[in-house]
Every structure is written in structure tokens, then in C-alpha cells.
Amino acid sequence: MRARFVRMALVGIVLLACGGNQPESTAGSPENPEDVTLIVDNDYGSTIAVYVIFGSASARRLGNVSAGQERQFTVRWSGAGFATQIESVLDNRRVASNTINLPPGAIVHVEVDSRFRPKVTAYKVN
Description:
Elements: H1 2-9, E1 36-42, E2 48-54, E3 60-65, E4 70-75, E5 82-88, E6 94-96, E7 107-112, E8 118-123
Parallel strand pairs: 1-7
Antiparallel strand pairs: 1-4, 2-3, 2-5, 5-6, 7-8
């Protein structure tokens, strides 16, 4: 069911490989530098739930981000394709990103705008 939903809910995502515009913070965690850092900015009018999908696995819930807030998650890098799924807690709307391949230690930034349209940007880490 989730795979069917993900296929139906895919939206066009702008992916930018930024060389000089990388965030100043380093990706990963001190325990595992290969971890992926996921930063979610929520400009939507209500709380959103954030899920991550690796390869063909089912979505794994990471947590909520309140309206107007930013939250950072650390996700274990698996080497499989990476996608995010955002769900509005209030009105049960869902949207998923396209699957992207990430290097170890990558930073992924998801901005959810006021019209519930996520923009995903993936940064490479040197």
C-alpha cells in the first residue's frame, strides 16, 4: 500500500548539487560520520510528520516538526536510495520526494512551504 502511495504522491523536486553553498555544519554524528543529516523547515500552517524511506523498505517515522519550526534528524546511511515523505498531522495530506542516491555523510534539507510543497536540496560533504 505504501509503495503504491509513494508512486502516486511523487512530486517534482529540485535537487541541487552545491559546491560553494554548503552549510557550515558538518554532516553525520560524532559516533558515525557516514550518517545522513536531515534538516526539515516547516513553513506549513500545521505540524508535519517526517518519514524516511531507504530503497524499497517501508517508511520509517522520524518525528514531528511544528508549524514555523526547523528540526534536525540524524539517519544512518545505508547506501540504498533515499527518499522523504512528509505528512500533515492535521489534515492527513502526504507527499513524498523522488528517490535520490546520497554519499555517506550527506546533508539533506527539506523546506515545506505554506502550500505544502516540499523542496529538497542535497549537499555533498567533502
